[in-house]
Structures are given as C-alpha cells and as structure tokens.
Design a protein that fits this description.
CATH topology of the domain at 2-170 and 199-227 and 285-301: Rossmann fold
CATH class of the domain at 2-170 and 199-227 and 285-301: Alpha Beta
Number of helices: 11
Strand content: 5-15%
Largest sheet: 7 strands, parallel
Number of strands: 11
Distance between the termini: 35 Å
Radius of gyration: 21 Å
Helix content: 40-55%
CATH architecture of the domain at 2-170 and 199-227 and 285-301: 3-Layer(aba) Sandwich
CATH superfamily of the domain at 2-170 and 199-227 and 285-301: NAD(P)-binding Rossmann-like Domain
C-alpha cells in the first residue's frame, strides 16, 4: 500500500513510519521536504497544490497546530493550520478517487473541554473551548458535511475522523511533562484526596489502531482513541515513581482547605488558583468502545500502566 502522511516529521508521524514501513511505501508531506531516515521521501505543501504527488492509496492527515498550554499562540494560526490545511488536504483526497482511505487526526478537545457525565463518547454534543478545539471541530464539520452532500464521491472509501486523548510514548511525554518534573524532584503531591480519573493514549496502541484501520473494513465516521483503562492522578504518580524506582509521596490534604487556598490564589494570583485546581482534579475519561467494536478487538494491545511506564523509562534512559 502507498501511504501519504502529512506532518510526518512530528512525534506521531515518525512512529507511524516505523510501524508501517515494512509492507508499505510511505511518503511524507510537511513544511520541510526532507527524507525520513532514508525510508520515505517527503514533499512540500506546494506539491499538493501542484498535483505532483505520487499515486497513493491512503492519506493520514497528522499536520496541525498543537494545543499551546501556555496560551501564547494567536487564534488565527490554529484555524489556518488545523482547519484550512485539513480542508485543503481533504479536497485533494476527494478529487482523487483512487485514494481509498482518509484518516484525519482531530482531538477529544474538538468534542468538549470538560466531559459531561462519566465517560466521553462520540455522540456527545460538541462544545470545544478555545481556538485549538474550535479549529479542529470546524475541520470535522467540513469533512462530515462533504460526506452528506456528496455521498457518491465517497462510496467504497473510508473517511475516518480520529479523536485521540493525550498521546504519549518514548520521545514525547505530552502533557505529562509538568507532573513528571514535579514527581522527579521528589516533591509531595498535595492533592491526594481528589480521586479524579483520566484516560491516555499510548503511541503503541495508536499505531496498532491505524494499521488496523488501513487493513480492514470500517465505516466512515468519528472514533475516539484511548487506552482501555483510566487512571487517577494518584495512580499515575505511583506508576511514575515505580518507573523511577522512587517512593511516591502523596498527601491527602483536606479538600475544603485546598479549595480555600485555591480561592485565595484567585485573589492573590498564586500558582494554585480555582481554574488550575479544577484542571488538576477533573475527570476526563474517554470511551474507546466504538473503535474496538469497529475493528473487532476486545482490548488494546498495551495496557495503560505498561504504556506509561515505557514512556517514563525512556526519559530516564536519556
């Protein structure tokens, strides 16, 4: 199979090259048109416009503007990259009927910033907060609208919108970065009384699912991507400490006291405020039931703890 991967030089792209290179011919599309370790040739975005790309069977659209947790990026950058570039790439797919599969990497943040209820499923009413999620959902809406308005163009073709939750793996801690740095210093975690649950996505599970999507029949549509198990922050810290062979220091300070301190942080502009406390202690559990059913699998190959342990150990080795 000939596969075109946009944003190939990123963390997910480089892992997909390693996972797919054996039985496939891989081509890249990125800002910098350099080859990837002699495995595949990378084209520039101008080549997409000029229709000089080689014939491919599938497109995996990874290219995008990542979520800036420091909120320093201008809003229009998200829409130029996450929305406009996705539309451009999908239009190329639509106009080349020989390409049978299109996979768009969206995000759970395109659905909601805060999970309503216990578990996030694909049928949630989208309500993104901020330009990252808003730009992703606009790209989703464009793709879904094309499927409805021009169904004849997509007959016999797969159009998959994948919504992964936080991706991590060797070489990339994702948003685990701050917590990892905190735990590595041996500092006690003061929020042990808050038993929140979060879901993660191991890069190994992600590449496994992409490989399956490319090789089997699956209905077009939106699919969440996540590990099977959700972990509390306390469990996550324990996994990190086990990987680092450290003792976990988790303090169960009174919730009311912590909430009071956070409210004082709102007034005094302290590092801990109400917004940050809510983000640190909220639940964000994502269901992967739909993608597993579509691929006829009972469970992901890598459990959440093993995937996180592998990630943390890779940074210790550095």
């Amino acid at each position: 199979m000939n596969i075109l991967i946009t944003g190939i030089h990123g963390f997910v792209g480089s892992n997909l090259v390693s996972a797919l290179k054996g039985e496939n011919s891989i081509y890249g599309l990125d800002i910098v048109s350099k080859d990837v370790d002699g495995i595949c040739h990378t084209f520039s975005w101008n080549d997409l416009s000029d229709n000089v790309l080689p014939r491919v069977d599938s497109i995996i659209h990874l290219a995008g503007k990542a979520h800036d947790t420091k909120n320093k990026s201008a809003a229009d950058i998200y829409f130029k990259v996450n929305t406009d570039l996705t539309i451009k790439t999908f239009d190329y797919f639509s106009n080349h009927p020989e390409i049978k599969t299109f996979i768009f990497f969206s995000s759970v943040k395109a659905a909601v910033d805060k999970v309503p209820g216990d578990v996030l499923t694909e049928d949630v009413q989208t309500n993104p907060v901020g330009p990252y999620g808003e730009s992703k959902v606009k790209a989703e809406e464009y793709i879904l609208r094309q499927l409805v308005e021009k169904p004849e163009i997509y007959t016999g073709r797969k159009v998959i919108i994948l919504r992964p939750c936080m991706i991590h793996g060797p070489g990339n801690k994702g948003n685990l970065n701050l917590l990892y740095g905190f735990v590595k210093k041996g500092l006690p975690w003061p929020l042990g009384a808050f038993e929140n649950k979060r879901t993660f996505t191991s890069i190994d599970n992600l590449t496994f699912v992409i490989n399956k999507i490319l090789s089997v029949h699956i209905d077009s549509g939106i699919y969440n991507m996540a590990d099977d198990d959700a972990l509390s922050t306390n469990e996550l810290i324990s996994v990190m400490c086990d990987a680092m062979e450290k003792k976990a220091h988790i303090l169960c300070a009174n919730k009311s006291f912590i909430t009071f301190i956070a409210s004082m942080g709102d007034l005094l502009r302290l590092p801990l405020n109400t917004f940050r406390l809510n983000k640190l202690t909220e639940n964000y559990v994502v269901s992967n039931a739909k993608i597993k059913k579509a691929l006829s699998i009972d469970h992901m190959p890598v459990d959440a703890r093993s995937g996180l342990t592998k990630t943390i150990k890779s940074f210790l080795e550095k």
